[in-house]
Amino acid sequence: QYSLIKDVVSSLKRHRMHEQQFSHHPLLVLSNFGLQQMQLKLMASMFQNMFPSINVHRVNLNTIKRCLLISYNSETQLLDLRHYSVKVVPVGASKGLKKLLQEKFPNMSRLEDISELL
C-alpha cells in the first residue's frame, strides 16, 4: 500500500514543501530491527547504506529537514515507512520574539516600544 505525494499534499491543511527540504539527506530512524534474524540485519544494513551516516557531534540541526522512519512489525512481517518534514521552532520565548526569530515581522503599530513586543 502506498500514497502518491499529490494525494498527501491535497489532504493536508497546511503543507510545507520547498526545494531546500530535499537538498540534504533525511535522518534515518529504524524501529524494531534489533531482532537476531539474518533477514532483518540485512534489511537494516541496506537501509543504513542508502543514506550517509550522520556524525551527531558535528551535524548542524538546521540542515536536517526530513526524517524517515522505517518500522518493522514482527507479527505481520511488514515494513511501515513514514516520511516526516522537520521544522525547528524556538521554545520558551514570547510570541513576538518567536516571530522575529522566524524572520516574520509582527504588526507593531499598536506598540509604543520594542520592549512591549519582547
From TrEMBL:
One CC-aspect GO term:
nucleolus
- Start and end of every Brix domain? 1-118
**Entry's InterPro entries?**
Brix, PPAN-like
This protein's superkingdom?
Answer: Eukaryota
Q: Which GO terms describe its biological process?
A: ribosomal large subunit assembly; rRNA processing
Per UniProt, subcellular location reads as: Nucleus, Nucleolus
**Pfam families membership:** Brix
GO MF, one example: rRNA binding
Q: What is this protein's name?
A: SSF1 protein
Q: Which organism is it from?
A: Bucco capensis
Gene for this chain: Ppan_0
